[in-house]
Automatic annotation (TrEMBL):
The active site is at E132. This is Peptide deformylase. Keywords: Hydrolase, Iron, Metal-binding, Protein biosynthesis. Binds 1 Fe(2+) ion. PANTHER family: PEPTIDE DEFORMYLASE, PEPTIDE DEFORMYLASE, MITOCHONDRIAL. Fe cation binds at C89, H131, H135. The lineage of its organism: Bacteria, Bacillati, Actinomycetota, Actinomycetes, Pseudonocardiales. It catalyses: N-terminal N-formyl-L-methionyl-[peptide] + H2O = N-terminal L-methionyl-[peptide] + formate. It comes from Actinophytocola oryzae. GO terms for molecular function: metal ion binding; peptide deformylase activity.
Length: 181
C-alpha cells in the first residue's frame, strides 16, 4: 500500500488549477494507485491529485457502491434538481457544512489507460464527482457555501488544530451548479 500525506487547507497546491493529463503511462498508473490507497486509508469518498501535491487532472472515488477513477473529467448536470447536504473534505479534516450541488450528473473522462469513461451519478456520487472536479480547478467546497456559513467555516478552519496557514482565502468556482468543463 502506498499511502501519501494529504495536503491541508492553506497549501497553495489546493488553489492551483491542475494540468490536463497527456501521458497515460506508468507514472499515471502509480498516481491512481497512490490516490486510491490514500483515499481508502482515510475512508474518504474521493481524492484528487492536487490533494497529494500533484497538479494533474485525475481523481479517485469510492461511494454509494461505485468505485474508480477519472482522468481529465468534465461533467454536466442532468435536470435542475439541487441537493443541499453535508459535505466534508480530507484536506479540511473533521469539519463539515451543508453545501449545494447538482443532484444528478453525467461525467466523462478517461481511465488511466486512455480509454473513455462515462459516470452517471446521483446524490452522493454526484456530489463526489463535483467536489473532486472542483479540486482540479483549485476550488474547495467552502468556496461554494453561502456567505454566513462560509464565514463560520473560515473561523472553524482558523481555529482547527491542524491549520498552520495564513488567512484562508476564498476562490470563485469556474463552474455553476449545472455543469463543469
Amino acid at each position: 500500500m502506498t499511502v501519501q500525506p494529504i495536503r491541508l487547507f492553506g497549501d497553495p497546491v489546493l488553489r492551483t488549477p491542475a494540468a490536463e493529463v497527456v501521458d497515460f503511462d506508468k507514472e499515471l498508473a502509480t498516481l491512481v494507485k497512490d490516490l486510491w490507497d490514500t483515499m481508502e486509508s482515510q475512508e474518504g469518498a474521493g481524492l484528487a491529485a492536487p490533494q497529494l501535491g500533484v497538479g494533474l487532472r485525475v481523481f479517485t472515488y469510492h461511494c454509494d457502491g461505485f468505485a474508480g477513477h477519472l482522468v481529465n473529467p468534465t461533467w454536466t448536470a442532468v435536470g435542475d434538481d439541487i441537493q443541499d447536504g453535508e459535505e466534508g473534505c480530507l484536506s479540511i479534516p473533521g469539519l463539515y457544512w451543508d453545501c449545494k450541488r447538482a443532484r444528478n450528473i453525467v461525467a466523462r473522462g478517461w481511465d488511466m489507460h486512455g480509454e473513455p469513461l462515462q459516470i452517471e451519478g446521483t446524490d452522493l456520487l454526484a456530489r463526489c464527482v463535483q467536489h473532486e472536479t472542483d479540486h482540479l480547478d483549485g476550488v474547495l467546497f467552502v468556496d461554494r457555501l453561502d456567505a454566513t456559513t462560509r464565514k463560520a467555516a473560515m473561523k472553524a478552519i482558523r481555529e482547527a488544530d491542524w491549520f498552520e496557514g495564513s488567512t484562508p482565502t476564498i476562490k470563485q468556482s469556474p463552474h455553476s451548479l449545472f455543469g463543469g468543463s
